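Researcher: Please generate the 3D structure of the following complex. Treat every line as part of one assembly.
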Amino acid sequence: NAGVTQTPKFQVLKTGQSMTLQCAQDMNHNSMYWYRQDPGMGLRLIYYSASEGTTDKGEVPNGYNVSRLNKREFSLRLESAAPSQTSVYFCTIGQEVPYGYTFGSGTRLTVV
Amino acid sequence: EDQVTQSPEALRLQEGESSSLNCSYTVSGLRGLFWYRQDPGKGPEFLFTLYSAGEEKEKERLKATLTKKESFLHITAPKPEDSATYLCAVHSGNTPLVFGKGTRLSVIA
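Model: Done. Output below.
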């Protein structure tokens, strides 16, 4: 997915471990978002950043922290991973209108 | 609170068999309704934005329409390569997009 790079693509963690999911964009958008996608639950917003230096909670923020490092980068941190955080995580960028968001290719995280 | 409900959850079609996917929404003030396509193992890809009731947009075999309460994604004479999950999302006020759970479409040759 051109413009949004997520790392890593796959990760397996043990319960209680911590990790940071990285997202970088080269499209010069102000807004960046983290969603998680689970079977039967759809895409749910975790956190977002409307501009450099600002972050806001979404629908499911518990257990996560974020950092908007600069205009290009927006990271998502799991301080103490739990099995309930097993999911596919998508970083997205852009304004809602007119073209919606551009998605990264996702990070598939398994917590055992 | 914005809500989006997509139906059916899954749809299986024969190649050439036209059908429609539904997206019902409840928002305080719609600023845009979006359709995305998602292939397995990939991120969603943008298809359409609709802004007001009566609006229609087309792309190849896909046509999206909008009323005050729902949107339809019509698929005419589908091909196996149209198999994917189709996601609907809404935007209202200054909040980020709210997504439905998607419809998983399978087109059988």
